[in-house]
Amino acid sequence: MTISVPAFAQAADTNTGLQSASVVVSATNPAKCDVTATNTAVVLVGDVLTDANGFPAADVSAKVAEGLNAALVNAWCTGANNGFVLSRTAFTTDGGGSAGDFQKGILYDVGVKDPSGVGGNENTEDGPTLGLTYGRFGATAAKTLQFVSFPGTTPIATSAPASANGATSSFTTFAGTRVIAGTYSSTVTIAITPGV
User: Fold this and answer.
1) Average pLDDT of the segment spanning 103-123
2) Which terminus of the chain faces fewer neighbouring Cβ atoms within 10 Å, N or C?
């Protein structure tokens, strides 16, 4: 005896056309900065630190700015709010301190122009603290930073040790005091902290 059973129909294949799926991929690009100097040792040529009477020369800051500009300090930063700190030590010889009625240091101040071209200048008068924040700069090539003598400040004799890197107001200074002869050195530091 044979029993007839109806055949079950198979479902039609509906995936015959173009199919697609979208996947969103996201990532974070943190702000990045770089600062380099073509020359990391600058020698100010000639008798430029003191005047003919042995007092700090009025244009010491300008001479330092010229030397820094000649060093070709280049920087770029992709952040929108980048912290920029410019600091310096005083010019000192033989570890700083005083020598009788003479001093072994010269305090000066320099500034650097805003590389993004929209804000004010950063300067050393405030010491190594976060001052102004600058926008993005150096889109295709690093900007060469431009240094200037900071207006309103006058080089002055100081007893600060070479390690001092503070605000102008934190130095002990001696107006109308001569500085001793010797080989002097100072360090200028540029630090950029990227900020989104």
Assistant:
1) 92
2) N
